[in-house]
Amino acid sequence: STTPTILAIESSCDDTSAAVVVSGAVLSNVTASQAIHEAYGGVVPEHASRAHQRNIVPTVAVALQRAGVTAEDIDAVAFTRGPGLIGSLMVGVSFAKAFALARGIPLIEVDHMQAHVLAHFAEDPQPEFPFLCLTVSGGHTQLVLVHSALHQEIIGRTLDDAAGEAFDKSGKLLGLTYPAGPEIDRRAQRGQPSIAFARPDPGGLDFSFSGLKTSILYTLQKKVKEDPDFVAQHLDDICASIQHSIVSILLQKLQLAAEATGLTRVALAGGVSANSDLRLGLEALGQERGWTTFIPRLEYCTDNAAMIGVTARFKYAAGLFAEQDVAPAARF
Ligand code: KG4
Ligand code: ZN
Predict the structure, then answer these.
(1) pTM of this prediction?
(2) How far is the CA of 271 from the centre of ligand 1 (A)?
(3) Are 292 and 311 members of one domain?
(4) CATH number of the domain that 184 lies in?
(5) What is the strand order of the sheet 107-111 is part of?
(6) Ligand 1: does its nearest atom lie under 6 Å from the Cβ of 138?
(7) Does the Cβ of 10 fall within 6 Å of ligand 1?
(8) What is the pLDDT of residues 258-304, one digit of tens each?
(9) Count of the separate structural domains present in the chain
């Protein structure tokens, strides 16, 4: 059919997500998160794949039910092929293959990073092509020149840690639970960015966060030597300072990329776009520069299957289908 009903599966990291998408609308988007990783200070791949294995069937069942459809109504199955944790991806890929085989319907493979960018097409307002997108997640930091849905050019990337990792690793230093991004964000609202950290710049449109991380570590070690209670007493200011540094780096590169490409449609994607300073900072910068800015709703910023379904819609229309022998790709 020309307006296919697509079941989409996302299982690249620690969230099991299923969505039902038809042309122009997300009918359901259901995500089961895995609390187990909090206790370990990071995602434990072995735990993640086991949890996906438990969650996948119930998550799909809820997604179908909320969309008001049954398995018989589905015209194609989309899944995240990569990048991600291989054991996690394997669960989603295997489920999608089995579903497609049982129903005799086509399979559509989706690149997780491409999908983060296309999350902007889950609902209005949708950016016109071409546009510039800063994709910031726990695993990736990319500046993408989006020529069209399926022609995305990466014009800048991180050379070491991702922006989300910079938040999470700094949080770990402070004894915060994983993932630390949201708590740093909450605390930063109550603090002042009073501590300056070094921000080594690799130049051009590329990012580097490992130097900032080292600077945070050494600065705090020095402060704690002078005052053992420093971290406990100044936690909100420390969080505000860390957040200010990371967000400043992101916005500075985004501004460079806008100048280099001449684009004035500027978008955010990925889990870190939930960050309140980044959202406000982009809006302020956009007003100053005359940009039209796009920030998806939170539900579509963090890992979700709706973005996989939306990407699959473009691939379905282009006749791009996967074979039954397709394998997940940890690095895409
Ligand atoms: O896109 P995402 O859900 O998963 C990946 O594909 O990585 O991004 C997760 C990342 C984590 O590093 C988390 O700490 C960060 O997004 N994050 C935030 C906020 N909410 C989530 N970072 C800063 N501020 C937030 N409010
Ligand atoms: Zn992601």
Answers:
(1) 0.94
(2) 4
(3) no
(4) 3.30.420.40
(5) 25-33, 15-22, 6-10, 76-82, 107-111
(6) yes
(7) no
(8) 999 999 999 999 999 999 999 999 999 999 999 999 999 999 999 99
(9) 2
Q: How far is CA 224 from CA 188, 219, 231, 279, in A?
A: 20, 9, 7, 32
Measured CA angle at 310 (ends 266, 261), to 5 deg: 25
Task: Report pLDDT digits (tens) over 314-328.
Answer: 999 999 999 999 999
61 and 141 fall within a common domain: no
Same domain for 235 and 176, yes or no, is yes
Rounded to the nearest angstrom, the distance between the alpha carbon of 302 and the centre of ligand 2 is 6
Supply the residue whose CA is at minimum distance from atom 2 of ligand 1: 271
- The CA-based diameter of the chain, rounded to the nearest angstrom, is 69
Region of 153 on the Ramachandran plot (φ > 0 left; ψ -120 to 50 alpha; else beta): beta
Q: Which two tokens stand for residue 320?
A: 């791009």
Query: Predicted ipTM?
Result: 0.98
211 lines ligand 1 (CB under 6 A): no
Alpha-carbon Rg for the chain, nearest whole angstrom, is 20
Asked whether residue 135 is marked as a ligand-binding residue, the answer is: yes
